[in-house]
Amino acid sequence: MARYVDVTVPGPVIELGPGTGPVTEALIRHGVAEERLILIEFNPDFCRLLQKRFPKATVIEGDAYRLQAALGPMVERAAALVSSLPLFTRPESQRLALLHGSFDLMHPGAPFIQFTYATVSPIPLRNRDFDAEVSPRVWLNLPPARVWVYRKGENA
Q1: Class of the domain covering 7-152
Q2: DSSP assignment, residue 136?
Q3: Among 3, 39, 65, 87, whose CB has the most other CB atoms within 10 angstroms?
């Protein structure tokens, strides 16, 4: 997931559903400065753990599906958004709203990066106004996983 983040693009990198922080660690190893990370986590216990593990990151206890309310006013456009949310647990309309709301917070062309165990895109691809690419299946992950990358379409 981290390799899809261009560390040369300015602005924060927003992570949704960081849990205990394995993707956060990968982002830092990839070269994202900890100070650039905004971690939005719903579980208060995970928030406390994240604050201890990543003291320079901004940890927000909040609902990723109410992203703009959780973040408040953002001065700088985000470089990327990385999500480990279980999107299939939400209705299609909420998944699309999350994606489009994220695009509004990011630089043009910035990636919305989504982890999934599913064999299909967690964001519906029909009637889309965004670009999508998928990684090869990661067989070393158990169960095997994929990474989908969505970008706002040029005509959107």
Answers
A1: alpha beta
A2: P
A3: 39
Residue 156 pLDDT greater than 60, yes or no: no
> 76-85 pLDDT, tens per residue?
999 999 999 9
| Token pair 């990543």: residue | 54
Other C-beta atoms within 10 Å of 153: how many?
13
For residues 77 and 137, give the distance between their C-alpha atoms in angstroms, rounded to a whole number: 31
Composition of the chain by helix, strand, coil, percent to 5: 30, 25, 45
Decide: helix, strand or coil at residue 58: strand
Scanning the chain, the segments in alpha helix (DSSP H) are 22-30, 44-53, 67-71, 92-105
- pLDDT grade for 143, boundaries at 50, 70 and 90: confident
Domain boundaries, the chain: 7-152
- The tens digit of pLDDT for each residue in 53-65 reads 999 999 999 999 9
Query: Residue 86 contacts by C-beta under 8 Å, 6 or more apart in sequence?
Result: 17
